[in-house]
Amino acid sequence: MKTQLVILLVVLGSLLGVVASAAAQPVKLDDPAQTYSLVEHGHFVPDLDGRWTADNIDGLAEAARAAQTGVSEERVRSTERFWLVTSVRNDSQEARWVVSLLVSYLPEVALVVEDEEGERILTRSGESTGLTQILPVVGNAQPVILEPGEVNTLYLLVRARPEPGVDPSELVLRSQPAWSPHAFQLTGFVLLCLGAMIAMSLFSLVIWARFRTTTYLWFSLFAATTSLLWATAYGVVQLFWGASFDISLLNFGANASSLVFCTLFVRRLLETYELSAKVDRTFLVVAAAAASLLVAMFVMPHGLTYTLNALAALLVWVLLVGATVYATVRGSREARLLLVAWGVFLVSAFLTIIEGLGASLPTLQVRLWTIGTTAAGMLLMGLTMGSQMRRLLIEKRSAERDARTDALTDLRNRTAFEFDFRKRAAAYNAGRYAEVMVAFMDLDGLKGINDARGHETGDNLLRTFARLLEREFRDDDRAYRLGGDEFVLLLPARSAPEKGEHKWLQMRLEGIIAEVRASGFPEADVSFGLASLSETGGNRKETLARADARMYKNKRRKRV
Questions:
Q1: For residue range 233-255, what is the model confidence (pLDDT) as tens digits?
Q2: Which of 194, 334, 394, 531 is the most exposed place for a label (fewest CB within 10 A)?
C-alpha cells in the first residue's frame, strides 16, 4: 500500500512538473511575419489600485505566475488598468520587434523588458500619443530589441477608458520591419475618408458663399462635424493637443452636432417637394432633440451619453430615410441618389449603434466599415448636391439670360448693351480693338402699323427686323433692342476702317429693309446714326450722343 502511494505521489509530482514546465515555457518568436497576441500568450494581472508602476514591479512576476493566460475579451475590455506579462524567446534572426497597441490613445502606458537574469533592458512609461506611427489613429508602437536566442520578459501596463475599452486583438507583438495590417488599413482609410469629407465641406462652403443657399451651408457643417467626429474617434486631435487632452466631450459634441446639421440639411434639400407641415415639424423636433445632447453630455455619465448618441443616430436615420422615400415617390431625382446614400450609411449607423448599445464586435473591422461607409455615403450625398448645384447654375444662367434678353425679339436688351459697350470700350482703350462703332436705329413706320393693323402685326414686324439683323452681321457684331422701335448695333473692328467704309452699313440696312417690306410690311423703313470711339477719344457717353444725334438728323431728312 505504501509502495502504491509513493508511486502515485511520484506520478502526480511528475505531472505537476510537466504542467509547471509547460506553463513556464516562453513564447517562441520564430516567424517575423507573424503577429503574436499578448493577451493570448501573456499573463493577465489586474491592477486597479496602481500597485505596480514602471519604476516598481516588485512582486509582479510572482503575481503573473499565479494569474491565468488567454483571458476572455470581455474581461480585458472591462478592466480599466491591467498588466500583461509575457515571456518570449526570439528564435528568429530579426532582433527588432514592436509592441503595438492599436488604440486612439491611452491615459497611461508602460513597457518594461527584463532579460533572463531579471536585469532591466528597457523601461518606457507615460501617455500614449501615437506619434511613433504614421497617424495617431493606428495607435502606439513601442520598439524593443529582442536578441536572437535570448529569453526576455515583457511587462506591459495598459490603462484605458472603460468605454469603448481596448480590443484584445489590438495588443500584439510583431517584427518592426513587417507592415502592421491594422496600421496600413486604418491609415489609408483615415487619410482617404477624412480628406474627402473635409474637401466636400470646404467645397460646399464655397458654393454656399456664391449662391447663399442654406442647403450647402448645412451640408458643409454636417461634413465638417462628421470629420471632427472621426478625428476625435481615431485620435487625430491628440496629435495637436497631446494624449492628455480629453476628447470625450469633443467626440460627443461632434456626434450630436453632425446629427443636427444632417437633419437640417435633408429638411432643406427635400422641402421643395412639399413635405407636410407635420413632417417638417418632426424634422425640427428631432434636430432640437439632437441638439439637447450637447447640453446633456455635460451632466450625464459617459456610458449613458454614448448610448443616447447611438439611439439619436438611429432616430435621425429612420426619419431621414422615411422623408427621402416620400420625396422619391414624388419624383425627386436627388432623393433617389440620397436614398442610396442612406443605405450605405446604414452599415455605419448599424455598427455604431449596436457597439454603443454594448455589443462585442471586432474593433478593427468596425472602424474600417464605419469610416469607409460614412465617407462613401457622404460622397453620394456630394453627388446629390452636385445635381442640385447643376440645377441652380442652370436657373442662375437662365435668370441672367432673361435679365439681358428682350422677351419679344430674343435680341439682347438695354442692360446687355450697356454692359457689352463698357467692355468693348475698355478693350479699345487697352489697344485690343482698332475701332468700335455704335449704330443707333429707329424702325420707322411701327406706330402706323400698330394703329392700322394691330399690335400683333407690329410685334411681327419687330421680330422680322430683329431676325434679319442677327443674320446679316458678323459674330463679333451685336444687335440690341433698347425698347419700342429703337435698336442699336455694336460693331468692333480689329483693324482700322478705311474712310467712307461706314457706307457698307447703309447698304446692309437697305437690304434688310427690302426683305422686311417683301415680308408684308411695305411701309417699314429704318433711320440710323453711326459714331465711333476713335472720333471721341474713347469717350463712351460722347460716342452714344453723336450716334443718337445723327440718327435723328437722318430721320428728319427723310421727312423733308
A1: 666 665 566 545 566 778 778 88
A2: 394
Beta bridge partners of 110: 125, 157
CA distances from 153 to 47, 116, 550 (A): 18, 7, 105
555 pLDDT band, cuts 50/70/90, is: confident
Closest-CA residue to 218 (of 256, 267, 264): 264
Cell numbers for 151, please give them. Answer: 529569453
Per-residue pLDDT at 481: 93
Q: What mean pLDDT is predicted for residues 156-169?
A: 71
534 closest CA partner among 440, 435, 438: 435
Alpha-carbon gap, residue 288 to 308, rounded angstroms: 14
Local confidence band at 20 (pLDDT 50, 70, 90 cut-offs): very low
Give 193's DSSP letter. Answer: H
Q: Is the predicted pLDDT of residue 521 greater than 80, yes or no?
A: yes
Using CB atoms within 10 Å of the CB of residue 300, give its burial: 0 to 12 exposed, 13 to 18 middle, 19+ buried. Answer: middle
Give the pLDDT score at 487: 94
CA-CA-CA-CA torsion for 410, 413, 415, 417, nearest 10 degrees?
Answer: 110
SS (H, E, C) 483-507: ECCEEEEEEEECCCCCCCCCHHHHH
Buried b (16+ CB within 10 A) or exposed e, 229-238: bbbbbbbbbb
**Tens-place pLDDT, residues 380-417:** 776 766 666 677 667 677 777 778 888 899 899 998 99
Grid coordinates belonging to 411? 435680341
User: Coil, strand or helix: which one is 129?
Assistant: coil
Q: In angstroms, rounded to a whole number, what is the distance separating the alpha carbons of residues 314 and 295?
A: 19
DSSP string, 411-422: SB-HHHHHHHHH
Give the three-class secondary structure for 123: strand
Evaluate if pTM is beyond 0.85: no
Please name which of 46, 51, 267, 69 lies closest in space to residue 158, comparing C-alpha atoms: 46
Choose among 354, 342, 325, 352: nearest CA to 378: 342
Residue 78 C-alpha cell reads as 472591462
Query: Which pLDDT score, from 0 to 100, does residue 335 have?
Result: 64
pLDDT surpassing 60 at residue 257: yes
Distance CA 381, CA 24 (A): 57
Provide the angle, in degrees to the nearest 10, between the axes of the packed helices 248-270 and 277-296.
Answer: 170
Report how far residue 114's alpha carbon sits from residue 155's, in angstroms, rounded to the nearest whole number.
8
Return mean pLDDT, the chain: 77
Phi then psi for residue 435, to 5 deg, are: -160, 150
Closest listed residue to residue 533, CA positions, set 430, 438, 401:
438
Helices 181-211 and 214-233, axial angle in degrees (round to 10): 160
Q: At 356, list the grid cell.
A: 454603443
Q: Between 269 and 405, whose confidence is greater?
A: 405
Going along the chain from its start, the domains and CATH numbers come out as: 26-178 (2.60.120), 184-401 (1.20.1070), 414-559 (3.30.70.270)
State how beta strands 171-175 and 36-37 pair. Answer: antiparallel
Q: Which segments within 307-461 are labelled E, that is strand? A: 435-444
